[in-house]
Amino acid sequence: QGFPPGPAPLPLIGNLLQLDPQNPLKTLSKLVQRYGPVFSLYIGTRPVVVLNGQQALREALVTKAVEFTGRPDHIMISHMTEGKGVILADVGPSWREHRRFALSTLRNFGLGKRSMEQRILEELTHVCALLEKSAGGSMDPQHLFHHAASNIICSIIFGSRFDYDDHYFQTLITMMEEINKLAIGPWAMLYDVAPVLRALPLPFRKVFRYYQRLREHMQQVITQHQHQSAAHTHEPRDMIDCYLQEMQKRAGDGSSFDDSHMESLLIDLFVAGTDTTSNTLRTACLYLMTHTHVQEQCHQEIDAMLGCRECVSFDDRHTMPYVQAVIHESQRVGNVVPLSVFHTATTHTQLHGYTIPKGTMVIPNLSSVLSEEGQWKFPHEFNPHNFLNEHGEFVKPDAFLPFSAGSRVCLGESLARMELFLILVTVLRRFQLVWPDDGGVPDYELIFGATQSPKPYRMGVRLRPQVGN
Ligand code: HEM
């Protein structure tokens, strides 16, 4: 067969007008009904292939990983990063070297060992202090979780954290949020299809301005690190120290390690690690407040397993199948990165019986897998039993792909999993989360974006009696 089928495009704009601007995911699921799991669309004059359902996604991302590891170089966000860093870097030595460096650095910092846990637990003391201030009342958890997730990344890459009310920190976070919001919305598409508009002062200019400001921030911190000469000779304190050492080690070997690539890598980790984790936490809290029996069961499991121990550890997850199921179910319904990051075909290839020419942009519709019928016991409702077997043991179905799969699989997956577990257990151990009386009817609909988020809500906070006191 030839190229995957799809709706007929209009000249110049392709299928853009057929996509629901508020929620293109709805349009995509209608197109699956009509054309099957692999179909095509035109964004302007460029064809893209959309992959839906576990089978097609795994075929492309895992079985044919080499053929589908590329990244597009023509879309707005690839122009923004100039293809540097990891997220939007095309396959090649620079992507490979930086991905390997970031993964091994995260590991050496103790992913799965103590020190990374300590960084997260340290941030949690600030989270709990702030929640305590709201005890008996209610608060919007958006900033709290954003700041906490961002601070954990800051501690890893810069070796320091910000106070939650720091104005400068707030500005950095707002810039990241705006970049994520504009990254795949209608303005980004307009940028792609109408190059003549790029010089005009339209909202997409903001993305470039904010990215530049983030870059300047990274430059400043890197310069500070360079001036502290101890960084080069002693135990590295953070990722910047590690990168500076790597640059020294590799000087003259023709590798891609330099200041500019370091800035891009740090921005990538900062941007990729904030919204994603924090929106997942907000989804979890929304459902815990409105499904009180689920929260009650988490409280029971946490109290029984931790007793009067002071802190939770990541290893405790093995003794808490119900909490694990709730976290995974929150990731499933939270559907935080619905269309993954776009891939491209690195070579002329075949998929699902269709021909995919080299360079074709490919959109892995992760959203379609997370609620795929036939893959889940309860695809369309929040139900932790999607991750529990008949013995109450935690099981992870193959369709659990919020981090995507294959050679581009999320680089921060282990960190994110550790954060979600430690944060939720610590918060639930100390607090009961309640839907406020004046909270209205809970709205579970997500706000579409490169990263999706629940709508803003208020969270009632009650102190629980401390076990062991
Ligand atoms: C719940 C939290 C998170 C979710 C759901 C998530 C999801 C994803 C997804 C779907 C991708 C695209 C994979 C692909 O292209 O096929 C991705 C890539 C990536 N993520 Fe995450 N992520 C999360 C947290 C994090 C964190 C905490 C970090 C930082 C330490 C991070 C860093 C990255 C990076 C650097 C990439 C690009 C990998 C590459 O292109 O080689 N993510 N993530």
Automatic annotation (TrEMBL):
InterPro entries assigned: Cyt_P450, Cyt_P450_CS, Cyt_P450_E_grp-I, Cyt_P450_sf, Cytochrome_P450_fam2
Record keywords, A-Z: Heme, Iron, Membrane, Metal-binding, Monooxygenase, Oxidoreductase, Signal
CC cofactor: heme
Gene Ontology biological-process annotations: organic acid metabolic process; xenobiotic metabolic process
CDD domains: CYP2
SUPFAM superfamilies tied to this protein: Cytochrome P450 (SSF48264)
A Pfam family hit: p450
Binding site for heme: 410
Cellular component GO terms, alphabetical: cytoplasm; membrane
GO molecular function, one term: iron ion binding
Subcellular localization, as worded in the UniProt entry: Membrane
Family membership: Belongs to the cytochrome P450 family.
Name this polypeptide is given: Cytochrome P450 2F2-like
